[in-house]
Design goal:
It is a single chain. By secondary structure, the protein is an alpha+beta fold. It has a domain of 37 residues. The chain is 34% helix and 25% strand. The mean pLDDT is 90.
Length: 68
């Protein structure tokens, strides 16, 4: 499947809120957590991945919600 990363953050709350909004809009969003648990908030980030065909719609939703 062709997917795109549309958002990176170290805030789990922000990422979970964004994914919730995207899923409510019918976008199949999922999270990839690349944070190093031994170094909290210092290395890595949490990514939101969506299908490439939903990239623009997803970004628009997150901009409207002032997440992006």
């Amino acid at each position: 499947m062709n997917e795109k990363t549309i958002f990176l953050s170290v805030s789990e709350i922000k990422v979970n809120t964004a994914v919730h909004l995207l899923k409510e809009a019918g976008i199949n969003a999922h999270i990839i957590n690349k944070m190093d648990s031994a170094h909290v908030n210092l290395f890595g980030a949490i990514q939101i991945i969506v299908p490439k065909e939903d990239e623009e719609k997803a970004k628009s939703i997150l901009k409207e919600a002032e997440i992006l």
